[in-house]
Amino acid sequence: MSFRLDMTVIEKNTAAIRFAITLHNLTDKALKHWVLHFANSRKLNAASFTGGQLEQQGSYCVFTPNNAPVLAPNSSFYTEFEINTTAFSFHDDGINDAFLSSTIEQTQLVPIPVEVTTVDLGASPVERYTTPLQPAKDINIIPVPALLTPLSGQFTLSATTIIAQADPLAESAIRWLQSELEQHFSLQLTLQRNGHVHYQLSEKIERDGYHILIEEDHIWVQASTAAGFTHATASLLQLIPLDADSQNSYTIPMVEITDQPHHNYRGMMLDCARHFHPMVRLKSFINQLARYKFNVFHWHLTDDEGWRIEIDAYPELTSIGAWRGPNEVLEPQYTHLTQRYGGYYSKVEIRELIQYASDRGITIIPEIDIPGHCRAAIKSLPHLLLDPQDQSQYSGAQNYTDNILSAALPGTYQFIATVLGEVAELFPAPYVHIGGDEVPAGAWEKSDACQTFMAEHNYQQTMELQSHILRFADEILRTKGKRMMGWEEVTKGGEIDNNTVIYSWLSEDAGLASAKKDFDVIMQPAQFTYLDLVQGYSPDEMGVDWAGKLPLDKVYSYHPLANLATNDPIHHKIMGIQGALWCERIDTQQRFDHMIYPRLLALAEVCWSQPNLRHWDDFTARLNGQLQYLNKAGIQYRHCE
């Protein structure tokens, strides 16, 4: 350890928090002309810093001390500053990463590592939030099926078990079953004309529902759709005990299940722009989504901090926009500050993941965020997307001042048409999500080109420029046979076609308001579905708390539009429910697993099961029974007790 950075809360009031940062030189050499680089996701009050100046772009902060001082051996530098925000409650609120640089005779930054200690919150310890679990049941299927009848006896699954050839609609489900049995149970089941496991097409089964009958010598699986066969397979896999007997066989309880989904759309969004998640992690995650009967993977592929999808027409989007670091076009953000960090998914990899997900009944919906959250694209294609005459002043939710596409540049429309065209061709899903969120006040206001553009189109409010851009995107997608989706802010500028699907994230009331305007809505209120929120109240909880705390029981308590009468026609405008994992602070498998599990299982039941069948104690018992599987799968979940 050569340099150390400490952060301490020294004063709190209702308007601001005052902090101290102490930088220690623990070496026997002086550091001259030094600059401190660090990451913190809050907006820091630059004018409040003592002894130097701060510049901030996103989470990346650069502090330059006054008069180029020398950091002498075994000495320290101290500065104070304020943040005009709510009080820090968690260690994750502190400095995420840091490094030093020296300005002496350097054309490029040469990062000097700095150890960052845990922020001193100046608060009393808070006991860890726990969730007592009921004893596991004999059968622990999640989500809870509509009707499950235990029978007397058991079916023995072994290497001699044969899967009978089935209707083509069942082929993907059978492939998934074979893959899971080989991976987790070391069983390689063959497919023959006659067998013991029967997948049968039945038009009597509700769409995407299924029927399972397990007898002593046969397993009968019935469905009317490919998705129904997949959901049946998910339940069948959960019935298999994890421990084999001495002959490597598994005894499955005889049971009859009739089941169907309560919500047609059951999604989970993953942010791969803030931190890049490798393919192996995505495949594992999709496998778990299928196991718990989700049917949509919403893939957040672009944002200010990274562009993750290969676009043939614009190779700069991935050669430049997929990477950030001390000497990259995109500055470092959040973590990994000292190195070139990032990655992207090639079209070959994307097609592979689409097929992998399809075999498990998962549709992948891509998200290309416009017109905000476009910094990675703008920095990659400045000749196309940058208006150097735009003097507009704004600061977005993530502290960026240069991340909004210009409505007055022809390049904006060329970019949107080209990118959405390639995305629509690549993804078979009938939808493309275009973001449309968090365009801050001030955008476009001091752009002469945008003001002229507004006058030409008789626009009175700057947000009408967003609607203009989004209507163009909608037209492009329609020509490709796709339906546009967007966050709830897409309605702010007015005149957005009601065919657009709205994702409501700020609150449930926002979703209700969109439904009343005759939009189809996906309910995704952060207060119940954002799995990047902390799961308790102790300082060592991982995550954020801008929308409150989200322990397991609160996820499970969610009942969309519960205050509306069951016969209210507004319910028909709700397509389903979606969870989300935003990844500003999630850069490892351990953090990924800790934030998702076991809350994903609670959300699965909210999405799938009839509300009258959901009972907390019963769920915790079945969850207790699922933990053995999570352990065997190597999932590093947050322990409940």
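That was protein one. Protein two is written in the same sequence-then-structure order:
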Amino acid sequence: MLKSRILAATLLACLSLVALPAVAQDKAADGRIIVKTQDDLPRFTYQIDMKPSELLATDDATFNAFASRVEADIDDMLAKYLIEDKATMRSVLDLKGKIALLKGNDSTAMKTIGQERALEEKPDAKLTNGLRDEAMIHATEQAHASSGEVYELAYASYLESAVSQLPWDVVGTNLKSLKRSALIAGTGRLIGTAQADFDPTYEANEGSISQNIGASLIYMRYSIDRWVPVADETAQVLSKHIAANDVRKPDIWEAREVTLAESDDLPPVVVAIWDSGVDLDLFPGRVHTGATPTDTTGESGIAFDLQSMPELGDLQPLTDAQQARYPAMQDDMKGLSDLQNSIDSPEADAVAARIANLKPEETEDYLETLRLFGNYSHGTHVAGIAARGNPAIRLVYGRMTFSWETMPPKPTVELAERSAAAMQAYVDWFKKNNVRVVNMSWGGSPAGYEPALEKHGMGKDAQERKAMARRLFEIGRDALFAAIKGAPDILFVTAAGNSDSSNSFDESMPSSFVLPNMLTVGAVDQAGDETGFTSYGENVVVHANGFEVPSYVPGGRTLAKSGTSMASPNVANLAAKLIALDPSLTPVEVKKIIVETATPTDDGRRNNINPKAAVAMLESES
């Protein structure tokens, strides 16, 4: 999912904004302020006397003194605020644990690991959270050192013993993820990121950084000092364990799949992929071409560029240089996908080595290019999932342009208002062209605006940027909500998000919207088990396969990708098939069938769609 990038690119704004009025906050019995959303939390700013990249490489005493300032603010926040959201508390505790490890306070680090696990609700995370940190702590105790050959051997021994006692069917995916992190661990990329991303931001803000950058520096220092030295041992232990235990989970989806036939001669159903663009050449006979072209729209869709100005074309235009790099970057995208899924391949080996060995001066260009082509291919991949097995589908695009460069567009009031108008223009085009289903595999939140404001040196400190971001967020949120609400004849299907957090606490849009013509989708794997990344919330009422889902990228290559971005079009796919079978269905009726025929799990956390059951219900009621 293109989490936060979307509206960070297209719904940012601000030059001079009036301060928001103070809002009364509820308090707990102990006097602490009750935190209801992520935006209720305070923001912190740190004045430092060296560039972030220099701070990252400085001596332990200097860096730990900075980490202690961050720690003091965390403790002060916990003393004043009651954070009931478990995901947020886990992230706070994790940062405290990393600071403790850097300072050699292993008992504090162990305590935070236990606290985090107690807050975990997903079975796999409850067993694996803090596993590598725990191994580091036990190795330090055994070796009486936190580095060196004896320490590394003790780390590997503990990790091997720990993972061997875990139930593979529960934790296998998480262990694969940890192995992937180990394979790409490297110092050069971290230093390069600090130089390219954080140093200019520091200079733009006259020597200050937000707690977001501060936390990132702590994680980077932890990676350089503690994680990179044992990454090879981690990969070796987990590779051995995975090879011995990796039995692919049973696939529940094949038996549930519904495939419509050309011979059924079903009426066409227009489905919009509101995303980064679609390579329509890959879907012959399944593209809607009935729209009347204008100076700003095509016969099969509507598009806006990075500045929310109208633009023609189903795919984002690439420069000649970018086009020349695309074939090789497809190999890297495949390699990353294979790494994610622990598939041994030449592409996986190559991309792991490339990322792990990036030099600081190579980092920015490589990561920007990877983001560019990840964005470029996203909408086509989503479209392939939505169109699968449905000859009646007629695809159209609502192409958005996402920022891929380290420095995002400068926020302006004009851009925010233009972006809000674009949101309405997309939906107006969908309504005019009889779109029945829209898939939205993207999202944004108030906090997502703050980094761009900081990078451009806007606002006197992090607290002021939070207020500015809130105002900007509301411009986009209100416009998007009104546009969707004003299209009651269209079913909008959206991805829950990939942050393993509550979409309502994060105020994610559009996934937190509650509307009768919206359906928010969480991700499960091929066996119907909850993925570690999927976000959740009261309005996440159905789940679909979002793990290793194969589909096309521009040009026609097939790649498997994971994310709620892939789960959402699986539901859009089902919705379009139901409408093809009965065009009289309203969005509310389609939504009701999908939800009521989904299979609830015993723990009540998931409600997995069942296309065959949905079609059977439709036919029984006809």
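The mean pLDDT is 92. Keep this in mind for the problem set.
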